[in-house]
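User: ok so my PI wants both of these folded by tonight, can you help

Assistant: No problem, let's get them done. Here's the first:
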Amino acid sequence: MANARRYFRYNVMIPMHFEAVDRYGHYLGAARNRLILPDEEMRLQIVSGQLSDCLDKLFDAGSNAHEVFYVLKHRLDYMSWLLQYLIESNDPRRAGDYQFRLKADHKFCPPKCQTGSKIAPLILGVYKAIDACITELHSVVDNSIEGNIFLYPAPLQSEFTSEAYVANLDKLADAGVLPAQFLDLMVNKLQIHTTVLNRLKQAYHKRSHPNNWPLYQVNLSAGGFSVDTRDEYALFSRLEVFMNLKGDTMICRAKVVSRGEDDVAGAHKLGVEFELLTGEEVRKISLFLQHKELRDAMSVVALSH
């Protein structure tokens, strides 16, 4: 039997956040070309090819640094692979080779460099920066909501620069010193990836910080809600609705079904209908409304006495 209170509406004040999404549920404010610019993608392709060439030359030259640089490149490639999935709001764990890549990455540890090496601090710095980013990306994936909603609560990453470790890396690279060329390319690629990660954090900042969601006065039911807002959403457009129901965060797919006329303050009433709620989600909303109704009724009784 259908829940008799499914369409019961009650006025409540709750923290909320809305995101306009496409038919696949992807946030329109985080399109790929906003997260990684075309010239950055082109630069990454060029740098990746140059890194492979450098590594081959180091191997052919019998350089002792080859193994260390192989580790750095492998880990940065893994970071790049994770980012490619998150840029598209896809869960990398669903990829057939995820476990293989994860286990391969776990085998690596901080490189051991020759004592007294002038570039050793830079090598370790690059490794630690990559490791920190991979750890953060794993946290984003592991703490995602059903592998569909990704949150980025960590602060922005500062840009990695070689100058903090080596004063003249670019000059050494320009002079044809292979290890310097390799590290210069690594830093360049790492900087682009860090920029992309920071853009993800900025794009999803509001959803990732529920304590900052604004309070909305809404007429809520398990079927949908109406709310006064100045934000513009097209009729029949789709939304991802984030709600905090007394400490219980809910994320519901919804559709705009009505839009009222603007008032003198420029606000209008938006009618929103939930789509494909689970039975558990319907139950949570219904219980929240019942508890609110009961508390309000008890307050009225207390005041009357």
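One down. Here's the second:
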Amino acid sequence: GGSITLDISTRKQAVAVTVADTGCGIPEDQIDNIFDRHFRGDHGQPSSGQSNGLGLAIVKRILDLHGSRITVSSTMNQGTRFEFSLPTPAVA
């Protein structure tokens, strides 16, 4: 069993979010496609259930609507890390 870590921190006018896991990783040649609708990666692992490949596409679209972007870094057999920030409203 691997683990998933969620880190949330406040920055100037934004909240920074990092989601990292200790899973099998994402092959480098698939990183550019993981945010595409209906993309399901093939990394030699059996599927753990049914997926329609929409999750990351939806996340990316929501972040786009907030003027943010998501970055990903991954190392095979070590895990994957996603990072993004969301703007916070100005306090008067």
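Residues 4-87 form a domain with the Heat Shock Protein 90 fold (CATH 3.30.565.10). Residues 47 and 75 are 19 Å apart (CA to CA). Good luck tonight!
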